[in-house]
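Submission checklist for the structure archive. All mandatory fields must be present; incomplete records are returned to the submitter.

[x] Identifier: MMPL family transporter
[x] Organism: Micromonospora coerulea
[x] Residue count: 712
[x] Sequence attached
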Amino acid sequence: MTGGRGRWTATLIAVAVVLGWLIVGGIAGPYSGKLGEVATNDNAAFLPTDAEATRAQNLSAGFVEKETSPALVVYERTSGITPADQQRVQADAARFAQLPGVLGPLPPPIVSQDRQAVQVVVPIDAAEGEQIRQVVHQLRDIAGPDRDGLTVNVAGPAGLLGDLIEVFTAIDGPLLLVTLVVVLIILLIVYRSPVLWIFPLLAAGMSYSLASVFVYYLAKHDVIKLNGQAQGILTVLVFGAGTDYALLLIARYREELHRHHRPWDAMRTAWRGAAPAIIASGATVIVSLLCLLLSSLNSNRALGPVAALGIAATLLVMLTFLPALLVLGGRWAFWPRTPREDRADPRAEHGIWNRIAGFVARRARTVWLVTAVALAALTLGLSQLGATTLGQSDLFTSRTDSVAGQEVIARHYPAGTGSPATIFTTQATAQQVAQVAQGVPGVASVRPLTEQGQAGPPDPNAQPKVVDGRVELQVTLADPPDSDGAERAIRDLREAVHQVPGSDSVVGGFTAINVDTAAASTRDRNVIIPVVLVVIAVILALLLRALLAPVLLIATVVLSFLATLGLCALIFRYLLDFPGVDQSFPLFAFVFLVALGIDYNIFLMSRVREESVKRGTRAGVLGGLAVTGGVITSAGIVLAATFSALAVLPLVVLVELGVAVAVGVLLDTIVVRSLLVPALAYDIGPKIWWPGRLSRTSREGDRAGAEVARAR
C-alpha cells in the first residue's frame, strides 16, 4: 500500500468511527437527563430481605389497608398556643385530609404538655413513592409561612424523604455543569491549547451519554436499582476517570508523534503502548465496584453495577472514539505546542520529573522510609473518625424544613412521637411483651393498635387488632428517632422482647431500619474489603507478571487509604464541623480510593516494566517516572477536582465522599506514586519482579543506575 493510499484509508476509518459515535451520541444524549425518572430514594426498600426491620414491614402490611409514611406538621408559639392558632390548625388539617395521596381521616391534633406546640400527623400513602415530595410541597403550601410569632414546619419520615428527593432531583444539572467547568479549566491549564481540550471533553460526554442509556433501561426494567447517590457518583466518576484515560493516551500519542511521520502510525503505536494500562486500570475499577454486589444492602448493590457500567462505557469510548478524533486532528490539535518528528528522547520534555527521578535515585531508601512514616502518622487521625449513622439534623449541610421541624418536636414532645417503633408479637404474649417493653430505658409509652386502626389509649380493656394471631404494639421513644439514644433503645428493646417465651417478637420502624442498615454496613465492610484486595492483586499480578510488585503496590495504596481517612477525620471534625461519618462511608471510600488509587500505580508500573525490559529495572524506574510523572499528576488533579464537585450538593454523605476521594487521589499521585512507589522499586531493584523473568535478569542498566542518577 502506498503512503498516500494508506493515509486516505486511515482517514476514512477515523471519519467512519467518529460519525458512528456521533450517531450513537445523538441517540443516547437525551437519556442523561432522564435518569431521575427511574431513580428511587426510598431507603427502606434497600434493606436486606432478612433484616428484622424488613420482616416487621412485611408484617405491618396485614394491619393496615395501605402502608403509610407520616408527615408531621408542627406549629410552635413559644408564648403559648392561642385559640386563633388552634382554629388555624383545625382548618389546615381539614385541607390536609383532602389532598391526593393523604389517607384520611387524620388523627386529632396533638397539643404539647407545655401548650407551646401543636402537632398534626398526616399519613401519606407509601405507594406515592417519589411523589411524596409533591404531597409534602402541598402540605407546606397549605400550612403557609411563619407569621405573627407562629412557626410552621413539616417534618417526620415523609418530610425528610421529601427533602432528600428534592436534593437528588436537582443533582443532574448543577453537578454536571460544575464537573464540566472543572474539567475544562484543568484541561486548558494542562494542554495550553485552544483546541486539544475539546477532544477529551467530547469523549467524556459521549461516555456519560452511553452509560446513561444502559443505566436508564436496566433501572426501568428493575434489573438494577438507581438512587440519587449512585446517580451523582456516576457523573463525576465518568468524567473524572474518562479524562484520566484521555490524558494518558494523549500523552503517549504526543510522545509517538516525535517518532512517526504519520499521525495514524503514531496513534497505532501509542494505542498499543497505553491501551493495556488503561484496560487494566478500568478492569480494576470495574471488578472492584462489582464486588459491591456482595453487599447485603440493596443501596450498595445499586451503586456497584451503575458505576461499573459508567467505567465500561468510558473504556469503550476512550479506546475508539478518542483515538479517531486525535488522528483526524493530527499534529495541529496540539497547536501552539505542535510536536514535530525529531526523534527526541521523550524524557527531554520532562525536565522537572527528570530532576525528581534523580532525587529519588540518590535518596531512594530515605525517600520511601520518610514518606511511609509520614503516611503512617496521618493514620493517627482515625481516632477522630466517628462512624455513626448520621441523624436527620446532621444529614444536610444546610438547615432544611424537616430538620427544623424535628427540633421543634424534640423540644415539646417525646421526640419519637409520630415515628413510633413497632413490635409484632403473638396475641397470647402481647400484654407481657408490652410490660417488658415499657420497662426498657428510652421507651416513653407502649400502646396496642386497636381495631379502629389507631393507637389506643393505655386502657387494658382496649381491644387490639389481631391479624393471623399477631398483635401490633406501637412504641414511642423518648429520643429523636434518628438519634444514637433511639438506636440504643431499639437494641435494648429487641433484646428484652426476644426473651419473652413464645412471643416470636419482631421489632421494626424508622429507627429499626437505621439500626439494621448500620449492622449490614459493618458486615459489608468486613466481607467486601478483603475480596477487593484479592481481586486487585490478581489483576496486578497478570499485568506485571510478578507477585512481589502487586503486594507492595497494594500495601502502599492501603497505607494511603488509611492516611486519607485519618486526614479526612481531622478535616471533617475541625474544618467542616461535621459530627461524624455514616456507616457506609468507610466502604465507599475504600472501594473508590483503592480502585482509583491503584490506577496511578498501574499507569506508572506498566511503563516502568516496559522501560525495564529495555534498560534494566532501576533505569526503567527512573525513565518510567520521568515520562509518566506529568500526565499522571494531571490525571490525579482532574479526578480530585471532579469528585470535589460533589461538595456543591447539600448532603453531608456525598460531601464527605467527595472530599475523601479528592484528598486520597492527591496523596496517591503526589506522594505515593511520585515518591514512595518509585523509591521502593528502585531500592529493591530487579527483585521487584519476583518471580518473573525480569527478576533474574541482570542488565547493565541496573549496574549503571547510580551513574544515571548522578547524571540527572
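[x] Structure attached
Curator remark: The longest strand covers residues 68-76. Residues 38 and 531 are 30 Å apart (CA to CA).
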